[in-house]
Design goal:
Elements (H helix, E strand, L loop, with lengths): L1 H45 L5 E5 L2 E6 L2 H9 L5 E2 H9 L1 H4 L9 H16 L1 H22 L2 E2 L2 E5 H18 L1 H4 L2 H23 L13 H23 L11 H8 L6 H32 L4 H8 L10 H5 L3 H14 L4 E7 L3 E2 L5 E2 L4 E5 H5 L43 H18 E4 L7 E4 L2 E4 L4 E6 L12
Parallel strand pairs: 2-9
Antiparallel strand pairs: 1-2, 3-6, 4-5, 5-13, 6-9, 7-8, 10-13, 11-12
Protein name: Cytochrome P450
Keywords: Heme, Iron, Membrane, Metal-binding, Monooxygenase, Oxidoreductase, Transmembrane, Transmembrane helix
Pathway: Mycotoxin biosynthesis
Length: 481
């Protein structure tokens, strides 16, 4: 009788212990959602130069921080450490956009990189249009928002997000789409829906995920617009001989030109859509952080204005050359990126098979690995007074926003670096120059301008930027649309 009682107790104990451990892990994963950045930074500072793991919803995340870890990730073959599996885990494309990426996706990635690099080479021709978009959106905000003692009360995140989505749309999809209010309205709603779905799917039990997937009118409108543009470009290249073909005027046109002829329309739509989402979900956050820093550290405004006074936005000469000659602004943007560090981790990977770092740390197959740049940028051994905002730490040090490598890991690892980093850098500097030349601004309440979610620092939708037109607007170009 006693033996059977013990046996029964053991039978009950194992499932109870399993449920207890599962519950603890679930709580730990949820804790990461709200305090992931802080938890990882504290762990990195408590145990410097050591890899560690944290529970995240649905997986285990291995966090690494040393130069050796960084170089190991750079050297790891795609057959061992996959960025596409990490992106699939992050974006949940099966539910957000109705496709399930296979792995590897090197061929799609190659076409994406080629089309992006082509458009980077076209930046000097596009920058005047970017300036017009920025002026148009910011002028509209100043003119239409409620005023308090002559200052328009502009919601910073809402305005910057729409501005940068228009800029991104112009580069990726073309001028017509960037100036189409109907398209932009659907695109903004589609982006918001996608962000909500990709987070929700990762939090609910897997059997509930299929009922969450997005299939609304905004997504359909956006996909149909992409499909029409792709078909138009294909028809044009088919009917026009190579010597007479116009250079692609958007990433979409370049993608169609570089893609193999046997790729289906849906495959092109899916690839361009993912390219669009990756940029529009990240770039407005970095831009919002930059504006926050410009007006929460007003002691640097005089130096910024002195320098930007030499930039002529209406000049027919290349703006790129002028933007390259703004060392203080370059340093200021870098310091904003360092201190805000919108994603605590970079170089997102999932182990295809078991992977062992050079220090012996092992990552089982299926688990995630990321490099914690937030800890690196806050290391007092590397950055004196690392919590202080000081753009002079980068000034005249031969540093650039688009640098790559362990010292500036913002763009990932060199073998798989972000191909659009020059576009991001130029548009950030363009935004700063446009605002400094055209408007007076201030942020009266700098409290709670951001909140943490997972490893990201997300701008609050409630932060107000007080704006008015400068008494003397310098070097303006025609706004229009």
């Amino acid at each position: 009788m006693a033996a059977s009682s013990v046996y029964a107790t053991v039978l009950w104990a194992f499932p109870c212990l399993y449920l207890l451990l599962k519950s603890y892990r679930s709580c730990a994963g949820w804790r990461f959602l709200l305090r992931g950045r802080a938890l990882m930074l504290a762990q990195s500072q408590k145990y410097p130069r050591q890899a560690f793991t944290v529970a995240v919803p649905g997986n285990t995340l291995h966090v690494v921080t040393t130069p050796e870890h960084y170089h190991d990730m750079n050297a790891a073959p795609l057959s061992s450490m996959s960025p596409w599996l990490a992106a699939r885990e992050m974006f949940q494309p099966k539910y957000t956009v109705g496709i399930d990426w296979g792995a590897p996706r090197e061929q799609v990635s190659l076409v994406t990189v080629r089309s992006t690099r082509h458009m980077i080479s076209e930046l000097p021709k596009l920058e005047d249009e970017f300036v017009r978009i920025m002026q148009n959106e910011l002028d509209k905000a100043v003119d239409t928002k409620d005023k308090r003692q002559g200052w328009s009360q502009v919601l910073l995140w809402e305005t910057i997000q729409r501005t940068f989505i228009r800029v991104t749309t112009h580069m990726l999809l073309g001028r017509e789409a960037a100036n189409d209010d109907m398209f932009l309205s659907h695109a903004l709603a589609f982006i918001a829906e996608t962000g909500l779905i990709m987070e929700t799917v990762r939090l609910v039990p897997s059997f509930l995920a299929p009922i969450i997937k997005g299939r609304n009118t905004h997504q359909k409108y956006f996909f149909n617009a992409l499909a029409r543009s792709i078909e138009q470009r294909r028809a044009y290249t088919t009917s026009t001989s190579d010597p007479n073909q116009e250079t692609p005027q958007s990433s979409l046109e370049a993608f169609v030109d570089f893609a193999p002829n046997d790729w289906s329309l849906q495959k092109c739509v899916d690839a361009i859509n993912i390219m669009f989402l990756i940029i529009v979900l990240a770039t407005p956050i970095i831009a919002s952080h930059l504006v926050q820093d410009m007006y929460s550290h007003p002691e640097h405004l005089e130096d910024l204005r002195t320098e930007e006074n030499h930039v002529y936005l209406s000049s027919s000469s290349s703006l790129s050359a002028q933007l390259d000659d703004l060392p203080f602004l370059e340093a200021f943007v870098m310091e904003s990126m360092r201190t805000k560090c919108f994603q605590a981790n970079t170089a997102h990977r999932v182990a295809v098979r078991s992977f062992t770092f050079s220090d012996g740390h092992r990552v089982p197959a299926g688990e995630a690995v990321e490099f914690n740049q937030h800890a690196h940028f806050n290391d007092p051994a590397l950055y004196l007074d690392s919590t202080k905002f000081d753009p002079c730490r980068f000034l005249n040090k031969g540093k650039s926003i688009v640098d790559i490598g362990y010292d500036w890991s913002f763009w990932g690892v060199p073998r798989h670096i972000c191909p659009g980093r020059l576009h991001v850098a130029n548009t950030l500097k363009l935004l700063a120059v446009v605002i400094l030349q055209r408007y007076d601004c201030r942020i009266e309440n700098t409290k709670d301008m951001n909140f943490e979610w997972r490893d990201a620092l997300v701008p609050s939708p409630h932060t107000v930027l007080s704006m008015r037109f400068a008494s003397k607007v310098k070097h303006s170009v025609s706004s229009g649309q």
